[in-house]
Fold these 4 entries.
Entry 1:
Amino acid sequence: MNAKEEALRLYGYHVWANGRVFRRLEELPQDIARREIQSVFPSVFDTLAHIYRIDTVWFLAMRQRFDEIIPASRSILEETRGMDLRRLEEKFRDLADQYLTFLNDTDAEAVSAYPHPQFGTLHARYIDIVRHVVNHGTYHRGNITAMLRQLGHPGVPTDYVFYLQEIGAP
């Protein structure tokens, strides 16, 4: 498997796993996603909004649109505040379409510079940034599982091996 295929597979997993979380939330009482609890984020919805915001930040960074990151991040915080779960899922899908187009048109082995005002400039391959985005999402989907359990509901398995099995990967 080359780097582009790996990037597409990993990102496909990220989309699949997020979709499984949304499907699980549809099965639960409507208020569960917004119910406030003591956790990493105030609610499951806030955790999903965070994943979406950071996915957007990294998408802009990979496209070298650094001047748009802070305004987009602030806008997402405001926009998601009153958003319903279905609309947030649509936003995830729209962003996923953009990611997939970008990844299909990009050399995943190419190195790009990612300047940060505090941490300096990171030079990384696109595949490494995709790994980071997926890993970040996996971490927070784990938070969501713990939050759902705290609210008295089982989470949903989103392990990578389940994705591989579902797509019939060799």
Entry 2:
Amino acid sequence: MDVGGALVDRVAEGEDTSFFGNRPMETPAVEGCEEAVRELLDLFGHRVFIVSKAGPKIADLTRKWLGQRGLVGPEGISPAAVQFVRKRPDKHPVCERLGITHFIDDRLDVLNHLASVDRRILFTGGLGANPVPIDVPPRSVVTLDSWPRVVDWLREPASGVWDRSR
């Protein structure tokens, strides 16, 4: 999954409480993301990854924010499963190398690059009150607007959830 617009609410972008502002650790989370990450860890175990675009400074702030929220750490996603790239298209080779089968992002252009990912979710629940217009996604991309809907969709057998019993 991505961070900005998926875990971090874009409503604060450009304000003091964003990663680019004066109080980055107060950046708001997308509603329901903490519970959803716990549920994803129950579903997928160690196969939950974060792949996000950020330079070194924002990547460091992001790691701290994720740890402070408990999303990454002993009860969350493994710190080793958090990967950062410098350009959005670079998410594809990382996903391919890690064998990622599902990806959640708020940007259709990113999802379009992820040809090796079977299940792609365009997440619109973290875009704030004035989201940017989104092109019509291809049939291979499902659009979901909340974390509970993401988790419900991933629980459905038709979504291709990885079976840990195999």
Entry 3:
Amino acid sequence: MGTLERKEKEKEIRRNDIIDAAEKVFFSKGFDVATMDDVAKEAEFSKRTIYVYFNSKHQIYFEIMIRGYKILIDMMENGIQYNDNPLDKIKGMGKTLYEFSQKYNYYFRSIIDYENGELDFANGISDKSREECYELGEKIFNNLEVALSSGIEQGAIRRDLDVVSTAIILWSSVIGIFNTLYRKRNYIMNYHKRDSDKLILNGFDLLIKSIENGGSSR
């Protein structure tokens, strides 16, 4: 291994160490409360060293979301790659997202709780971490669009639906169901005797029926 290659490898290791430390800090304290000083202390680096690798707390947060997106994409590709039925594929994506939210809750919450800012879309402001993060998010969204388009072409999904709008509504509805049942799980069980896991599956079925050709919600 040459000197330059070794230095690049060391740089990448140090960069990942900082992200690891930031995860511990952000997940325990919350992103808004946590500071770069907290990250530096956890990583056992100086604050100056942190800024050599990352220009802001937000950039580190994007790197954390990138990690989450990569796990989710891998789970989705493994879970639905052999399913040719578009409705089953869409339902499978929802189930995989739920599995991800349970198994990797901190990554899930990091992605879902992030509030897009105007600077995220400002022209001329380059940030590779932000750009990669949005590209990964769009990859998941595009997979949903492809499944919807395929379903319309096959006659399984209503032709009157706009693909982009439907994808946004489905995504928003699923996240809304997750958030409600996550925060109100105990209330729902104690007052209404309903299991949140079963309700989520029921929710998927209702959403699928609302878009399928011949579904009840027309």
Entry 4:
Amino acid sequence: KIVGIDLGTTNSLVAIVEDGAPRVIADSDGSKLVPSVIYFDESGAKLVGNRAKEKMVEKPKNTIFSIKRFMGKGIGDVRQDLPLLPFDVSADSEHIIRIEIFGRDYTPPQLSAFILRELKRNAEAALGEEIKSAVITVPAYFNDAQRQATKDAGRIAGLDVLRIVNEPTAASLAYGLDKRNQGTIAVYDFGGGTFDISILKLKEGIFEVLSTSGDTHLGGDDIDDRLIRLVLAEVPGETREIPAIRKAVNKAKEDLSAAETASIVVDSLQYRREIAKAEFNALIDPIVERTLGPCRQALQDAGLRPDEMDEVVMVGGSTRIPLVRRRVEELFGRAPHTELNPDEVVALGAAVQADILAGGKRDMLLLDVTPLSLGIETMGGVMSKIIPRNSTIPASATEMFTTFIDGQTNVKIHVLQGERELVKDSRSLAQFDLKDIPPMTAGMPRIEVKFLIDADGILSVSAQEQRTGKYQSIEVKPTYGLTDEQVEHMILESYEHAEADIEARFVIEARNEAETVLNATAKGLADEQYRELSGEEKTEIAAATGKLRDVMKSNDHQAIRESIERLGNATMHLAELIMNSAISKALKDKRVREIE
């Protein structure tokens, strides 16, 4: 059997489809939610889940939580979180995050694997058979490194990860089981550590993701942190009781979902204070507001208005907060669906996807999209997009490129991600070299660059010189994940700077074309046919060449192209002479039959 797993920041779940319906599998204590918490004792023994969560206050330094926030990231990406973490986080020489427990280092995928093993054991105990394969969900905005880290965690846990599925997409599958209506759905997923919004189209059993947006660093943990800072501001001096405070504010947050007031009680600090729902709402409103920006962006990308949504689905424990539901209802103009347990809906959808892969349901198709454009660097620092943003995946695309310099034997392939026009404004994913290309005239080599994104969102890039068959490829697994600032701003910046970016691209492309024309002109001047030109023609070519060199220094792409055209007209007779000479030489001493 194939299980579906929601590997969450706060809680994780495992689900299975039986008799055509998905259900979440409970552990031996009857609990369906497994806290994503790991406790280590001095001997190296581990506790996972509820028993580990109980140790968070008593043994905070060796109790690990919210590990999902570190998946596929570098130390620089999470530095702002470190002061609020009771355990030790460091980095190795390659900036890969390490969590040290009793002198032993663990990577985020290793720690996530402990949680996956616990879910695997729970499923095996409940089903009475070994579980070898799984579908695991991730936030839609997880990049290649974060998806790869999740697959690595699955392998470490002894699971064959058949598919990585976006969490909002999984939620759409769960709701699709009992909602067969055609329409457009907004899936608002506000969990413990991440926020995602997806706009989905449902038609004749096909779920298509029209657009996605979100923030890999925004969730219920941020609400807890706001409350923790509120308490810390009222507690004199330094304190090591942050785990106890975190537990207290989390309970108050949950109480306020139903009550008008709640108490924050930290016995070890002899601290107690009441918090009213109005104060709580004012405190967290900026966080809730941050979720609405990506919602508007996703709607714009899908070409839809908020009132065109047929359904709005709420996913994630943070959507239980009344303010969140109210603000979402205000944005979309309709009450969101909350029929399914928001903590379970992603796991249920993962189980449905697992069932599809197992052959249990063949009348439903799922189409995901890539959230950011992918491309390569071309001459002059321009990003050439090969797979556009919001392309349905799995996806592949091929573009043909050539060389710019005579005799060039190596070509550097620089893989980029982002929406801007220039390399300096894009995110570098990887670089590799296509070597040993036979020396040829610039423009002669034909280099095919192929991009392939698999169903898990992992990118492979290959380059092949068509004349010689020289080949090189790379699988992109970048060390660093996107920071929250990059996630929020990359797409918005592309709109804000669109006009200036396009203008800069036009200038670079015009200069590249001018350089090519000048090189070709220089070759023509060295040809013996140049002597056949009149003095007037030679003077005109010299003047046009000088003018083009001067105007290339400006940022006026229109003027550059006009100068290119002028030089082209000036050298037209020379080009005809060179061409006629070449044809004459090629045909010399040939018989008519040979030409035919």
